[in-house]
Amino acid sequence: MNFNHVNEELFSFLDHSPNAFYAVRNMCGILEQAGMTRLYEGAPWKLEAGKGYYVTRNDSAVIAFRIPRADYTGFQMMASHCDSPVFKIKANAEITADKQYVKLNVEKYGGMLCAPWLDRPLSVAGRVIVRTQEGIETRLVNVDRDLMIIPNLAIHMNRQVNDGYKFNAQVDMLPLFCEKGEETDAFRRLIASEAGVSVEDIIDADLFLYNRMPAVTLGLNNEFVASGRLDDLQCAFASLKGFIAATPKDSVAVHCVFDNEEVGSGTKQGAAGTFLSDTLHRINRAMRRTEDEYLMSIASSFLVSADNAHAVHPNHTDKTDPTNRPYLNKGIVIKYSANQKYTTDAVSGAIMREICRKAGVPFQTFVNRSDMLGGSTLGNISQSQVALNTVDIGLAQLAMHSPYETAGAKDTAYLIEAAKVLFSSSIEEAGNGNYKLKL
Predict the structure, then answer these.
(1) Domains identified in the chain, total number
(2) Which of 52, 213, 242, 47 shows the shortest CA–CA distance to 117?
(3) CA torsion, ordered 394, 396, 400, 402, to nearest 10 deg
(4) Structural domain contains residue 222
(5) Residue 433: inside a domain
(6) Torsion of CA 21, 22, 25, 29, to 10 degrees
């Protein structure tokens, strides 16, 4: 495995994907280069065996698939998400402070670590909806320069800050944008300029702050990587690369990336929406298969829910379960939870272990300490739409939900290899909890 080459490609993807809209646009570009045909939900689908396709929803979720043959046995899928905890710019964003400063009004999206957002260069990216002669049009904007900062309060004015501080999102976390000048509505004018339209033509917008620090390799032997949005663009990137490199034979390979996982997935573009179910049903109908054949194919399908996992923290080793202790660079993390926050059971865990063995990559396990509540991910949420064997996995990382996270330099390549095996395989239901693994 060429770890350096994989990380160079990963870093480029991360640095050019400041939020979900850009991540999906960049993935679509990679799929186009790989020869995939774009489909639209509002148009008829004419599908052919032996070809690959992709479709987006809301410009922030994408599903790509390759059909090896018309009489496929099932779907082999990997799902991840492209959103991260972040600050969203509110409408009427400008706030004047003391007649000298202009700051922007923001709100929290997802469960974030607030402190690391302070005292670092930030900018803004997202989408604007502009008026056209025929209706409305979406345009992506990214102010690609160091534009804003959220300044800390000096310790002289808050002597107890190092003893514990509760951040107030409406008071502490507003970014400094500019000095107060004669010009009004400066922020909207900047966004309009970036979109190439007049201020009057912008009807609405979804704009978010993002950390400007680029992805880097660090550690004595370059064994770590650090970047914003590793959770979960690291898994989304690995899934995409494995999908493109795979050779599906008997099952349809399906690469899924959803939005809004960090706020519960309950949107049309989230894992709790119908995007995956709609897509699988349309594939079934386009290949002239019956509903019974669809249900039979689901019984012989497998979903890998790929969302990063907590590594043992070097300064807080006691926060991890005594016997299940994932580390950076030690391979794919298979996640378990008795209360089904993760969907892994003995069957799906065993299948994933066999996939890793076939791929020649290491794997490890994660379970929360029994006295600590953990988070959930998109695997169990998606079951409400498409119920099938599912395993929850991730790549080990530190500082999850920080605007700058740390992971292992080898692990992305490991997941690419495992994804390649998954997408090339068939996992067929044989009754009584038995499965034929064609890996």
Answers:
(1) 2
(2) 213
(3) -120
(4) no
(5) yes
(6) -170
Q: Point out which residues pair with 62 in neighbouring strands.
A: 56, 257
203, 234: one domain: no
pLDDT per residue rounded down to tens, the chain (439 residues): 899 999 999 999 999 999 999 999 999 999 999 999 999 999 999 999 999 999 999 999 999 999 999 999 999 999 999 999 999 999 999 999 999 999 999 999 999 999 999 999 999 999 999 999 899 999 999 999 999 999 999 999 999 999 999 999 999 999 999 999 878 899 999 999 999 999 999 999 999 999 999 999 999 999 999 999 999 999 999 999 999 999 999 999 999 999 999 999 999 999 999 999 999 999 999 999 999 999 999 999 999 999 999 999 999 999 999 999 999 999 999 999 998 889 999 999 999 999 999 999 999 999 999 998 777 787 778 888 888 999 999 999 999 999 999 999 999 999 999 999 999 999 988 887 889 999 8
Residue 46 and residue 169 in one domain: no
Domain enclosing residue 193, as ranges? 86-211
The rounded distance, in Å, linking the Cα atoms of 345 and 338 is 9
The amino acid occupying position 434 is N
Residue type, 129: I
Angstrom distances, CA of residue 90 to CA of 103, 127, 210: 12, 13, 15
Report the alpha-carbon distance of residue 18 to residue 279 in Å, rounded: 27
Task: Report if residue 74 sits inside a domain.
Answer: yes
Residue 169, helix vs strand vs coil: coil
Tell if the pTM clears 0.85, that is, is over it.
Answer: yes
